[in-house]
């Protein structure tokens, strides 16, 4: 509690020293401000969130760490921003630990499956950016697509958190499902997610020797999906998936996903008074979300979504790092 109060007081001092007009004009300050509010939300609600939220904040922590390293040579020019990031990351580490402990008590199965990915140091964010190569040929596959239960099983096998399994273990059925090119939505994004988990652990398996090829294909398809959502003005119906695509392909290093209009959209989804994010067009209709995700979405009073907040903070971390490049 004292850590949260100290962070809130120091945050207020920093914000007072920034003119409102400069905050609106400077996207970097807008991103940092949104992150600070989201970190405060975590501190106040660490016992009300699910494993997805903790994972999203873990990705944010990795981005903040890399931003601090990038700014090491610009101490005089970025004094206020550096101090804000430093304070935020320090508070975030404390809140993440508390949230992970709460998840372990409330949902021990999910915590066990993803435990390594909830700790600082697991996520490695891009040090350079690349573009999607739309000319790389691929053929559409057919057959069954990944489901969320299988996704969790395959990822936990990679993480070595299943009973009697080693890190980077790949069940045969995971290989077949993870290289499909005809799937869409969350099923597609979780195929990329699988390859990202493998990258974080430098898995040497032959499947991942072609990781760059599959990352390019998946993010090409995910970019097409995001553009289609934007073109058809479905943003408010598909905001969660739209932002998840940005977060995952940003982690894969594709810079096309860091579009200014998309950043503005994510910032507008934040509940300013709470710091959390809400991207659904309906009230807290848990039944709708259960049908889409294996782990039940957790809502917090005030119109807050655990998963919306997770993908938002992960995506915003990418926007901040990309802006420092």
From TrEMBL:
It holds the Pfam family DUF4735. It comes from the Eukaryota. The keyword Iron does not apply. Residues 1-25 form the signal peptide. Coiled coil: none annotated. InterPro entries: DUF4735. Keywords: Signal. GO terms for cellular component: cytosol; membrane. PANTHER family: UPF0764 PROTEIN C16ORF89. This is Uncharacterized protein. It comes from Micrurus corallinus. The lineage of its organism: Eukaryota, Metazoa, Chordata, Craniata, Vertebrata.
């Amino acid at each position: 509690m004292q850590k949260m109060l100290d962070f809130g007081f120091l945050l207020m001092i920093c914000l007072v020293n920034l003119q409102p007009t400069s905050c609106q004009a400077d996207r970097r300050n807008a991103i940092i401000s949104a992150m600070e509010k989201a970190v405060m939300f975590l501190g106040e609600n660490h016992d009300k969130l699910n494993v997805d939220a903790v994972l999203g904040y873990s990705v944010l922590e990795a981005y903040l760490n890399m931003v601090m390293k990038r700014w090491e040579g610009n101490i005089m020019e970025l004094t206020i921003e550096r101090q804000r990031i430093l304070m935020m990351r320090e508070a975030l580490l404390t809140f993440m630990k508390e949230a992970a402990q709460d998840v372990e008590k409330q949902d021990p199965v999910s915590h066990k499956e993803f435990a390594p990915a909830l700790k600082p140091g697991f996520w490695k964010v891009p040090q350079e950016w690349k573009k999607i190569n739309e000319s790389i040929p691929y053929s559409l596959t057919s057959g069954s697509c990944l489901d969320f239960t299988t996704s969790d099983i395959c990822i936990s096998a990679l993480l070595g958190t299943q009973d009697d399994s080693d890190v980077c273990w790949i069940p045969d059925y995971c290989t077949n499902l993870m290289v499909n090119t005809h799937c869409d939505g969350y099923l597609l994004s979780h195929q990329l997610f699988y390859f990202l988990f493998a990258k974080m652990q430098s898995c040497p398996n032959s499947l991942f020797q072609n990781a760059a090829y599959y990352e390019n294909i998946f993010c090409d398809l995910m970019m097409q999906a995001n553009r289609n959502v934007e073109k058809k003005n479905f943003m408010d119906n598909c905001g969660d998936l739209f932002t998840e695509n940005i977060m995952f392909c940003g982690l894969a290093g594709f810079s096309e996903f860091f579009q200014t209009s998309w950043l503005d959209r994510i910032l507008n989804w934040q509940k300013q008074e709470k710091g959390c994010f809400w991207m659904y067009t309906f009230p807290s209709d848990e039944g709708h979300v259960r049908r889409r995700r294996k782990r039940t979405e957790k809502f917090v009073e005030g119109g807050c979504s655990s998963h919306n907040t997770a993908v938002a903070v992960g995506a915003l971390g990418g926007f901040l790092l990309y802006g420092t490049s």
